[in-house]
Amino acid sequence: MIPDKAPKEDVFHGSEDLKRDAHVPSFEKYKELYIQSVENPAEFWGAVAKDFFWKTQHTGQFLDYNFDVTKGEIFVKCMEGATTNICYNLLDLNVHDRNLGDKIAFFWEGNEPGDELTVTYRELLQRVCQFANVLKSQGVKKGDRVSIYMPMVVELVVAMLACVRIGAVHSIVFAGFSAESLCERIMDSQCSLLITADGFYRGEKLINLKLLADEALQKCRDKGFLIQTCIVLKHLSTDPEALVSSHSPPAKRPCPDLEVPWNPEVDLCWHMLMKGASDECEPEWCESEDPLFILYTSGSTGKPKGVLHTVSGYMLYTATTFKLVFDHQPDDIYWCTADIGWITGHSYITYGPLANGATSVLFEGLPTYPDVSRMWAIVDKYHVTKFYTAPTAIRLLMKFGSEPVQKYKRESLKVLGTVGEPINPEAWQWYYTVVGEKRCPVVDTFWQTETGGHVLTPLPAATPMKPGSATFPFFGVVPAILNESGEELEGPSEGYLVFKQPWPGVMRTVYGNHQRFETTYFKKFPGYYVTGDGCRRDKDGYYWITGRIDDMLNVSGHLLSTAEVESALVEHKAVVEAAVVSRPHPVKGESLYCFVTLKDDVTFNQTLEVELKKQVREKIGAIATPDYIQNAPGLPKTRSGKIMRRVLRKIACNEKDLGDISTLADSSVVDQLFQNRCCAAV
User: Fold this and answer.
1) Which residues contact 1 (CB under 8 A, 6 or more apart)?
2) Angle at 363 between CA 337 and CA 255, to 5 degrees
3) What 3-state DSSP class applies to 400?
């Protein structure tokens, strides 16, 4: 699986300075540790576990599992019998045992240049304990689910760590999602409390988050589900009283348009609650397999899946991947540009970095605001050493050339990373050459919400890089490539990417629906975890992700379900049927191309197109807004009524070579669809 020697041709190498101090300094060392992690995971991960505090030690097998649905229920268990608290390991351990209390945990950089603050590990611990006591005063207890719908502020980290300190389970909803999406997630996980903010700016755009939160809670009430308490952070407030005990300064930009509705029966002010709260709170000691958090990801059926991660395994895995993939050193300044509302922000802004006592940049804004040099200005301002962003952002900034990058020195940078989707070789080369000046290795990481952390990735000093390749598996991860029949392919090959055994950080179930968990990830090929991605392995053993195999789209690094978008479209009174496919996009990677069949008495026009886009935005969120909507009097279907999506993808891309369409019930539909193509998509 791993070649005996690293290839010497068609590869890029990291700097020699990096190799001298690296945790994994050579390919030979990587291979030695990898073999140990696969053949003796208890020894490998047991050594990692010694760096953390355990109230009680594990008693059973270190890692026990069943991946074969034909042999019984699917399960993964790590360190059964052990008890710990992840918040204690992230904060108390760093403050009291490692003497890092005065070390900066986060440099917060607001949307507006000049909006900034720092928070140390000691200050963060105090705030977390205070808010943990606030949650307890509101009746939140171990096992309860808490929904968090907040912008990228320090209080978001405080809220999530306060939950896990008392054993509550956080369910964070990205602040770009709609009220409908928030309502759906609150109800699915049966949350007892919501934490939100008044509003925030994303570049020039003011988002009234409280209005959306209220709308979501009303939708919950209409469906018979009542949330009694909503805690509101006044992030944009100019009321001095509201800013007592707040870590977030008000935005420098005035917000005269922000009206914050207030329901005294439900709403409580974050700042007022914090004023009277003690900054001491004993942690709740949790079993290894107790739930840690639920994070929703799009499902191919259209209903989002609540991915459930548990305490010990997730902690070990995010801590180790962060340390080794970014080659973390004590004096690093690390910056991940993701939002905490996604798994990248959970694992590589909050849990992984704090477990290593790292200093991170927490950024509220956009890479292009107030200008396209913002990222590089921040890199120089904080002397960022390790930088982790999405290929979408890289492709966006590429459009403006090298001059906005080269205005800044970027001398501090040592490692560059990418996340969210495969990076195309052209963007990789620009990132490596222009941003990193050919001296910073690029770690192109492949992983999913479900995997918890990196599963295929380069290591900065150990593995030579190929532009666009996810390289080799991380420690403890055993990939395989299967054909349609479920047979493992050897050597250079292409097919379904699967994993043969678990690692500590893999998801444990879909919240409230273990059957869906088994069906989605294990039923197609018993004995394997099925990623849903296609993959190619080259002659040197490098892995290349080729894209989703199921009905999912990867837009700007975020997975969207075609069924979810189709469902939103057909809810419009004019639409009878809808089909959504992907079309390549130079910046976002993929864009949404939608075919809609209308009722007989309805005419397709620009007004209807605007209405349909608005409908999708309101149902799912702005990120799901269709790029193209095409009138489709008929859709290409087989005689059994199944829509042939591969044909629609060809039409969306204006590719006339359709392959075999002999199973189509009516081939004349195809000609009509080509004639009706969106002219902007030519």
Assistant:
1) 473, 478, 479, 541
2) 135
3) coil
Sign of CA dihedral 574, 580, 586, 589: positive
Rounded CA separation 125/119 (Å) = 10
DSSP characters for 407-470? TS--TT--EEEE-SSPPPHHHHHHIIIIISTT-S-EEE-B--TTTSS-SEE--TTTS-B-TT--
pTM of the model: 0.87
13 Cβ contact partners less than 8 Å away, ≥ 6 residues apart: 441, 464, 465
Alpha-carbon distance of 227 to 146, in angstroms, equals: 10
What DSSP element (H or E) covers 125? Answer: helix 121-137
CATH level 3 topology of 16-85+295-548: Rossmann fold (3.40.50)
Domain range summary for the chain, segments of one domain joined by +? 16-85+295-548, 122-248+260-281, 556-676
**CA–CA distance, 382 with 359 (Å, rounded to integer):** 10
* Residue 359: Cβ within 10 Å count: 23
No. of helices (H) and no. of strands (E), the chain: 21, 32
CATH fold label, 556-676: GMP Synthetase; Chain A, domain 3 (3.30.300)
Residue type, 614: K
Contact 12, 465 (CB under 8 A): yes
Torsion angle of the four alpha carbons 558, 563, 569, 575, in this order, in degrees rounded to the nearest 10: 160
pLDDT tens for 622-672 read 989 999 999 999 888 865 566 788 899 999 999 988 876 766 778 889 999
C-alpha triplet 534, 538, 543: angle, nearest 5°: 50
Task: Classify domain 122-248+260-281 by CATH number.
Answer: 3.40.50.980
Mean pLDDT in the chain? Answer: 91
- The dihedral built from the CA positions of residue 568, 569, 575 and 580, taken in this order, carries a sign that is negative
**Do the domains spanning 16-85+295-548 and 122-248+260-281 agree at the CATH topology level?**
yes
